[in-house]
Amino acid sequence: MKTIPIDFTGVRVTALVELYLRWLDSQDPHPILGDPWADRVVRRLDFDFSSFKPMALGQYAVGVRSRVMDEWTREFLAKNPDAIVLDLGCGFDSRVFRVDPAPGQHWYDVDFPDVIEIMDQLYPERPGHTTIGASVVDRDWLARIPGDRPVIVVADGLYQFLDEDEVRQVFRNIMDHFPTGQFVFNIGAASVKKRYESQPNSIFAQHGVTFGWTVESAREAERLDDRLHYVDQRSVVEAALIRHASLYYRMLCALVSMVPAWRNSGFLLRYRF
């Protein structure tokens, strides 16, 4: 099988990190997400994923995060048979295949053109599925999408790499285009940003990845636009989902849950408009 060479820098590297962590989860005897595509996609890419081994514990957080967002997306689609899905900053994720939207529900994966060019070589064509190569902060790509249906917008590992003004613009562009919908996304607190920025040898620092928007509470995103309304939140350290994680990770999560400053360091959020 011919492999695809990868030479990413900057924020594009996060697509590879997320893929690697989903792959680790898929290799676990008790996967949280169990992405059936992760292994074959990793094998198609000519890239040395071993450099990401220091981030291996992240497989649990990414597994939980992706699973919760899949569940929220399925729930929305079950209630909206004509819905549109936007997966922003999709990277090399197979979410459309995991969620498996029904006929009549159209799914759009959006990421940088060079990321989408590779993604199109990794997955088969699927009816109702369209990939768009564009920066999510641009507005022009939305013109290709019908704006008369409810939408669910998935942003898994995206917003923390945009600054607040860019995040606000993304929300506003989408709310201006669609009549109603939901946003599901994850975001960290300033303490998480500071922790990464204080580690010059981290994978992110090595590849020039910079962090942007943070929040300190689950409802803080409501400040971005008065059309945004908080619905609910989930945690990446939910006991039921990490019950088969390593003992070390479960003990670490228990410690995090006991310290308020750490407990609120990251959020899985659902908003409506």
Automatic annotation (TrEMBL):
Any GO molecular function: methyltransferase activity
Superkingdom of origin: Bacteria
GO biological process: methylation
InterPro entries in the record: Ppm1/Ppm2/Tcmp (IPR007213), TcmP-like (IPR016874)
Keywords per UniProt: Methyltransferase, Transferase
Name of protein: Class I SAM-dependent methyltransferase
Coiled coil (residue ranges): none
